[in-house]
Amino acid sequence: MSNINRRDFIKSAGILMAGTALPLSTIEMVFADSQQNFTFAYISDSHIQHIKGKQFVRNWDRGLMRAVAETNLMDPKPDFVIYGGDLAQLAKKSEIDHGLELLSGLRHKTYYVMGEHDYYLDLGEYWESQLGPQYYSFDHKGVHFVVLNSILTYDDWTYNRWSSGEERMNVMAGLDNPNGSPFMVGEKQRTWLKADLAKVDKDTPVVVFSHSPLQKLFKNWNFWTEDAEQVQALLQPFKKVTVFYGHVHQIQYNQIGNISFQSVMATAWPWPYPKTYAQAPNYMPKLTVDMNRADPFFERDATGWQFVDIHNGNAAMHYSLANNSRRTVAFNTQTGRPEDMKYQDHRIPPQTHY
Ligand SMILES: [Fe+2]
Ligand SMILES: [Fe+2]
């Protein structure tokens, strides 16, 4: 599959994310000089959940096992793998250990992103002891990669409200729990990011991995990063910026200024689209098609794979869904925003207000 995509899109300048097979994604960096091209794989949101003893939720295990197996079969082989966060369900040692045991089958260098389900039991202590820093950057073949922990929140919420880490984790694990709190990157990390990016040439492609979207889409479900604009401002000086994120378990896309946003599907389960999407001014087109609820008798429904062609900074995403028809979301140069090729209703203007 990668070979087909490589052949089809090799001429594009920019970044290409190529799907292989569900439920992982491969991402191909495409340069004018094809010798520089490379691929990496992206696996996210496995939510490994401990029941008791040696029992874990089998379906979540299976999603991750399949992703690992198919990553190892990829041709060409990815240069590395990104794990996009929410490896665990309730951040238990047993869940992180079991998830890492399943991921240990990967034959590739793997970089990890922190998810809220990995964090709020012990504030990332065990995750960090096993996987290293919660935010960092690295360079690979002319691209600057940044990994952020975007699921932090206000200190008052984190430290002052809960009788135990379990209680805090359970509240944050609820999709629409009114006692939750908005995610953020935070001032400490933004200061680090500013210093990190100061060393990078403005022509260098920058790819950022976060768990939550670095944009404000739907606060009630925390499809939201409170200081998104401040992070975006640090990325604005660069010519080509792409943000990849997990967390939302569904297809999303956006373009804000020079920054392309792409979500990646989960290996565990899909979320439906919220009824009212954008709560802040942005370039997200008004949602015209509600996503069907997943079929409970088909465990892989609404999970899937995708490849994304980002041509000159504009994204064209090609989705293959396990039990649904294919979809393509491409940047429309006429309207200046990404549009769903099949479903977009051009008569509805982009949603730009609350
Ligand atoms: Fe998740
Ligand atoms: Fe998440």
Describe the structure.
This protein has helices spanning 2-9, 58-72, 93-103, 116-119, 125-131, 155-160, 165-173, 187-198, 228-235, and strands at 14-17, 25-30, 38-43, 50-52, 55-56, 80-83, 110-112, 136-140, 143-147, 206-210, 241-245, 253-256, 259-263, 304-311, 314-321, 327-332, 337-340. The protein is of the alpha/beta class and 354 residues long. The chain has one domain (2-32, 50-340): Purple Acid Phosphatase, chain A, domain 2 (4-Layer Sandwich), CATH 3.60.21.10. Strand 10, helix 9 and strand 11 form a beta-alpha-beta unit. Helix 8 (187-198) runs parallel beside helix 9 (228-235). The protein binds fe (ii) ion (2 copies). The site of one fe (ii) ion has 7 residues, from loops.
In short:
By secondary structure, the chain is α/β, with parallel strands linked by helices. The chain has helices at 2-9, 58-72, 93-103, 116-119, 125-131, 155-160, 165-173, 187-198, 228-235; strands at 14-17, 25-30, 38-43, 50-52, 55-56, 80-83, 110-112, 136-140, 143-147, 206-210, 241-245, 253-256, 259-263, 304-311, 314-321, 327-332, 337-340. Helix 8 (187-198) packs parallel to helix 9.
Strand order in space, largest sheet: 7-6-3-2-1-14-15-16-17
Mean pLDDT: 79
What's the N-to-C terminus distance? 41 Å
**Pattern of helices and strands:** HEEEEEHEHEHHEEHHHEHEEEEEEE
CATH topology: Purple Acid Phosphatase, chain A, domain 2
Q: Major beta sheet, specifics? A: 9 strands, mixed
Cα Rg: 19 Å
Identify the overall geometry: globular
Low-confidence stretches: 1-22, 287-293, 305-313, 346-354
**CATH domain class name:** Alpha Beta
The helix/strand class is: alpha/beta
What is the tally of beta strands?
A: 17
